[in-house]
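Subject: Predicted fold for Urease accessory protein UreE, 161 residues

User T.R. writes:
Posting the sequence so we have a shared reference for the thread.
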Amino acid sequence: MLLIEHLHTGHGVAGEQLELSFEYRTKSRLRARLKSGEEVGLFLPRGTILRGGMKLAAADGRIVEVVAAPEELLEVRCADAFELARAAYHLGNRHVAVELGESWLRIQADHVLEDMLAGLGASVAPVTAPFEPEAGAYSHGHQHEGEGAKGARIHMMDGNY
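User M.O. replies:
I've generated the structure tokens; pasting them so everyone works from the same file.
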């Protein structure tokens, strides 16, 4: 298994790609597969959030590009800026990760939130696209109960990698 413990900060060209959904790009400990099929273990500093286009430095010297995987999302549009801000407020009040566009919001697909937004008068449509929400509250790391400093835990992907 290829070990990745650091972000790549240089200008080198990536020779490998690691495609992950947003959920998996928020995990510091993860077992996944490169697009080539090779298994990798990510052991990044706690709180690291990977964004599409970022580069990782593998233990063997290879550079791996992070690719934001397409996901099932909901795109929210409103009649005017006030209504869009209102929809964003209600999503933020529920601590929902939101991607902001010039005239839309995107969230991960959720029928309860879809109903709430429709009830607010928003137009909600399913889209498949990479998800890059605002950092906000998600810029801080998370730990699982009982992990502490020694509790490195690797998240297993469910085969959709």
